[in-house]
Amino acid sequence: MLSPGTHKITVETTYTEARMGGPLRVVLAVDGATVAEGTVPISAPLLNREGVCGIHVDRAVRRIGW
Known about the structure:
Blueprint: E1 9-15, E2 24-30, E3 33-40
Antiparallel strand pairs: 1-2, 2-3
């Protein structure tokens, strides 16, 4: 549960094998503290414009099915 106010939520993804579509290590952090981590066995690489990456959450988010 997050307290009211502004928080920094980050998702860090890194390939665990040096190949496109390979497994990813994913780390979810809130205010710099890791709150969840795991491995995605197959990734779907996407091509996007440089600098167009990320989201802004401007409302309450509920934890679903965790």
